[in-house]
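Risk register update: the risk that structure generation would not scale has been downgraded. Supporting records follow, first protein first.
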Amino acid sequence: MLDKETLYQAILERHSVRRYDSAPLDASTLTRIEEIVQQVQPLVPANRMDVLRRDHAIDEDLIIILDVYGRFISPPHALAPYIRGQEHLLVDLGYRVEQMAVRMAGLGVGSCYVGALRREQEVRERLGLPVQARIGAYLVFGQPATSLGGRAFNALISSVSGGSKRLPVTRIFFQGSFDHPASPPAGLAPLIEAARYAPSAVNAQPWRFLWRDGPALTCPHDQCQGSQADGRLYLFVKRENRRYGGGANVAYRLYDGGICMANVALAMEALDVPGAWALCEATDPQLPTHPADLAPLAMLTLDEPLA
């Protein structure tokens, strides 16, 4: 297990690695990664996730299927996580895979998502997966290249893809209603910062947050004076995003929303913030009013008032 400081640091410092040392990771590190995979937390416990691991990562025909020729150099390993079930499959899958990516980063292991939704059926056939399985992305991983050329290649690809360009907080966070963009309350700010650092396909950053204060809490103890009201944090995702394009790629908003939720949950673990995500249904009459171009995804309830 990572210590709490290392975990939060890993959330903020993890980035996509495109060039790797071709040597495989040592057996001890691979064992720790297997433990990470086994310990991921689900959003929907009834859903079943399985993970295939490939060493000597992506072979030539899979590179063609995934349309990533020239974008990766020598990744020695890859995980192919897939999920089966009835509800919120892509959200749940993104949530679980991001936990792996962040905890691997805390071990010093680099990784990168390789999206599979556009050619999901071909990938299923290639891997021999059940027809009902969903696979949102591969996670290639290994030791990042340490040569000057390797570091330059990773930096160049990141800048070209826009991976270092994050939306300002006032573009994604709203207080009370979507008419009021704002900076988050101090106690919530580290969680929203973790959300901002979540990766997304083509850096689409589809997430939007709405904070709704709850009824003020009263406490007879002096140390409670000045505490902010409790409340709920709602997560929405953009229904459409030009970066995704059309077709099957639009579903990345769900997978990426799950990734974002994982970063928040990991930040809560690192900062000892008690609370839990609950997935939302679009038909829930208690959902706050929101623009038509946003789809509700989840609600975070905090067990204690913000400090």
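Supporting record for the second protein:
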Amino acid sequence: MLFLERLAAIVGPTNLLTGVDCAPYARDWMGEYAWQPLAVVRPGSTAEVAAVMALAHAEGVPVVPIAGRTGITGAGEAEGKLVLSVERMNRIRAVKPSARLAIVEAGVILSQLHDAAAAEGLYFPLWFGARGSAMIGGVLSTNAGGSNVLRYGSTRALCLGLEVVLADGRVMNLMSELHKDNSGYDLKQLFIGAEGTLGVITAAVMKLVPAARAHATAMLAVSDLDAALDLLNRLQAVTGGLVEAFEFMPRTYQERLMRVRPDLGLPFPVAHDVTILVELGVSAPRDALPDDEGQIPLARLLEETLAGLMEEGSITDAYLARSEAQRNAIWARREAAAEIMMGAGPTVDTDISVPLDQVGRFLTLALHRLAEVDPAAGTVTVAHLGDGNLHYSVLATSDDPELKDRIIEGVEDIVAELGGSFSAEHGIGLSKKKSMARRKDPVALEVMRAVKAALDPAGILNPGKVIPD
């Protein structure tokens, strides 16, 4: 009780939750994990985070930092541990249009940063379905990806600087606004993707880009994945690299979508084996002003390019958005991915990446392997095809943990054979620790353990996550 009283003195009694008040912080978003925290503390400043960590370090109390609670790997599990929520640290300290950057605290919701950037004619190019709840601290801690990675890179590529509170309460100021700085190790990269195991991210300097003045968006039915890759490369060549999103929604995804969300409809009368969502974005005024016929040059370029490909037979059908409402409808189908998998029964979700030219081979090999492990199982796939990231979900025939692990191991075997990764953008948390033990280079694991021991020798920061025992 003395420990909790001292926490309350740091953050104020209303910002320390115990007992039943912890319920919103006691399960993950997908409902796979549940726990009872010791307490939930909600500091409102970096100084308060530092004081909380110093106290927890002195008392040996384990701490689990959390942000928007939209993770799906169990990284926020906190049985008997102190949950440290950054939700009150939600200030946008500055938006600097001339430097094209924003200085934000860890509790800023992604959509809030989108809005603040848009007010200056800029864009923060990290975009995914949970943008209305995911927070900057969380997307940095998982190195989140999304639909715009193809053009702008993942969160790691968008961060210039960090402010981090270490396990013992010391504050490390890495809030650089520089694009070039060779003064020793790039320490901020240690904390991006570390899932709160090395420090608590409290603020960051994030890059902004010019907002698109126009988009050209289409749904395409393509003969096969080789044709899809050729389409991507040709679009990049003809537009000078303006492809912002290139998403793969195969027949299995569309069929599941129509069962769960029939209100969203499909762009074509029938579901095709290979359907691609492609979006181009342009910020130059000359490419965004309608021509004499009222058509945006970018949309005309896309339409003409697709027409040529249809004549060749690479594209079998195409639906171009002619309005913002039609564009939003296209994206709604893609962003329903998590929703349509809720309640699907025994499910094995994977988040893998392979070289772009190996996506088709992965899907073929995975089906053969699944037929050996769980012959009656089904699959639902959706992918950021432009960067080789597949969310390959298996609808297993039972919840047997051993069966699920055999399925995961089979996927891992194929991914390793193709030179890919078993984790692309969702992080490791608890659910991928076995994969880390099986697949991560042993020397790399030794180095990771050494870094953890150096920065958190008492092991109080999000213990039991990311690094296998």
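Residues 214-337 form a domain with the Alpha-Beta Plaits fold (CATH 3.30.70.2190). On this basis the risk owner (M.S.) recommends closing the item.
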